[in-house]
Design goal:
10 helices; mainly alpha
Length: about 350
């Protein structure tokens, strides 16, 4: 790669400001330090990440089709595909940090990907509550995705608006650029608040369920499900995914707090550890402990889902997720009740 001025490159003047619309490669004037990232992304690491996210996408989709866990699998797969595209873009930047299209691809994909991945996480709480003990939850199971999914998308919209404001600032309007950055940070902070609320509600329910099933002596399907090894593994995997996604959002606040091109944004090791691998760990957990295998109550298949096998319907549960089922009997640890899905 050339590190000297190419033929025809205008001499540096006070009016020439290096940017993605004025630079196409690294040279004496368009130095790598002037890019937003400020470094050559590590090619090997980014190729590894792109492949890893691609594999997660393929495996999640395959298991989702096999076990018919539609909503969860579509959200996680779409998020992994975006992450794969983002790190493929960063691999391109490793050769040319001034490649504008690759820079935009990695920015958009790596911001949007975790939002879709979080949607998969939010869907699990609905089914966990509906399966184990809806009466122990502060809210009806179906209300969880109805609140958290739009809230998560709203965070993304706010960040997109901030990005639009920042982009419209151009090179000279520093104040408008700062306003755009503040809007982006507001969207990330809101995402942390939404994740925090999700964690709090999940913890409340799981602590209540733990107490309930510890003192509950009857051997019911719900009790057996709670004590099953696969259920425990699934819950721990979802908890681990939640923690790393929460850490990633906290990092994003710090990364954007100093504005574009600040020293945190230009530190690749912290980005790889606190952004890339946090999201990758979550995706690996979502893939390795897929609900179709470890928590079959989320499946739409009557060959997989125990409730569908018995012809049961749970309020806000797996049968209520856009499948058109009408009314049926549901069994819970507290007794039988008829509900409208």
């Amino acid at each position: 790669m050339s590190t000297t001025a190419s033929a025809g490159m205008p001499a540096y003047t006070p009016q020439f400001i290096p940017g993605y619309d004025t630079c196409t490669e690294v040279n004496a004037i368009c130095r790598v330090e002037y890019t937003t990232l400020g470094y050559y992304p590590n090619q090997g690491v980014n190729i590894f990440l792109a492949i890893a996210f691609g594999l997660c996408a393929i495996l999640t989709l395959a298991i989702g089709i096999w076990k018919r866990t539609w909503g969860y699998s579509i959200a996680i797969t779409a998020g992994c595909i975006l992450e794969c595209a983002g790190y493929a873009g960063r691999a391109v930047l490793s050769k040319n940090p001034w490649e504008g299209s690759a820079f935009k691809t990695q920015i958009v994909s790596i911001v949007l990907g975790p939002t879709l991945i979080c949607i998969g996480l939010y869907l699990t709480l609905k089914h966990i509550v509906a399966t184990l003990a809806p009466s122990l939850s502060p809210f009806r199971p179906r209300l969880y995705p109805l609140f958290f999914v739009p809230a998560d998308v709203s965070c993304l919209v706010i960040q997109a608006i901030g990005g639009g404001i920042a982009a419209s600032a151009g090179k000279d309007n520093f104040e408008l650029l700062q306003h755009g950055n503040r809007v982006i940070i507001a969207g990330i902070v809101l995402q942390v608040v939404v994740l925090g609320a999700f964690g709090a509600l999940s913890t409340i329910f799981l602590l209540r369920a733990k107490k309930h099933f510890r003192s509950f002596s009857e051997s019911t399907i719900e009790s057996q499900t709670w004590h099953a090894k696969n259920t425990k593994l699934f819950l721990w995997a979802m908890a681990g995914a939640y923690v790393v996604l929460f850490i990633r959002c906290i990092y994003r606040i710090a990364e954007m707090a100093g504005g574009w091109g600040n020293h945190i944004m230009q530190d690749e090791p912290s980005f790889v550890v606190l952004e890339s691998f946090m999201v990758l760990i979550a995706c690996v957990l979502f893939t390795a402990f897929a609900p179709g295998v470890f928590f079959p109550w989320m499946s739409h298949s009557d060959k997989v889902n125990p409730a569908l096998m018995r012809g049961e319907i749970r309020e806000g549960g797996v049968m209520g997720e856009g499948m058109g089922h009408e009314m049926g009997e549901t069994s819970s640890g507290m007794g039988n009740e008829k509900v409208v899905v």
